[in-house]
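#onboarding

Welcome to the new folks! Below is a worked example of what a typical request in this channel looks like: someone posts a single protein sequence, and someone else replies with the predicted structure as tokens. Don't worry about understanding the tokens yet, we'll cover that in week two.

Example request:
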Amino acid sequence: MSRTETEAYVLTRPTGRLSPVIFASPHSGRDYPADFLARAVLDRRAIRSSEDAFVDELFDMAPGLGAPLLSARAPRAYLDLNRGADELDPAVIEGVARVPHNPRISSGLGVIPRVVAGGRAIYRGKLPLAEAEARIRRFWHPYHHALKGLIEETQAACGRAVLIDCHSMPHEAIEAHTRPGHPRPEVVLGDRHGATAGCEVMERVEAAFAAAGLRVVRNAPFAGAYVAQAYGRPSRGVHVVQVEIDRALYMDEARIEPLAAFGAFRSVMAGVVAEIIRDGAPGLALAAE
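Example response:
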């Protein structure tokens, strides 16, 4: 395996490519700049409530199984890599004109977030536009340049690319969207209702999670955000599936700490990852076998 580290991301590549599958974790970054923490009105634990804590660790076996893993280093509360670089919120950035209605911006979750989980404001006032642009230049563009490069090289080598966009979801968000009398889903797969991934790809990813004993639903309440929209082009051989995993399965959400059962759940995820990679390249043996 090879590993590339920049201030924006960590990219771990397999020794040999065995599959068209790529794993990426845009919200697991935890390198919090000191000046950002000093300016924020929330404490560190509250700020981390937006973070997909430990998600990169749930998928870090992928390179050993034949697929690259791209992980962000910048925290989501500082810069959201699952938003467009132009999704600037005038309520938190000075000098930004009002934009047509965008539900992500309206809720305070633009590329420079205004709030964390629960709608809690991060800042007391607004940020200079120059600062927002500097964050985007330093972190957003390098991450997406790396992601785009992975997709292009994978498609060139394998004829197609399958991006698994890895996320976690608050337990309470799932409970709020589960109908009475129905089992609570543990994994939500998003393909924007068929727009960002082919039917066969979606079915295989769903089957991998279901075979591990996890309850899976599609597109509700999370159908996929910017990464899926920007890169998913199934008609051109690029498929994107957003994966949301219930945080209660592996972490204490209040403390933002792994549960004692974290290792066991990570082992379950290793089987899921192996199956997704295997299904992506039928007939090829896995490096770990």
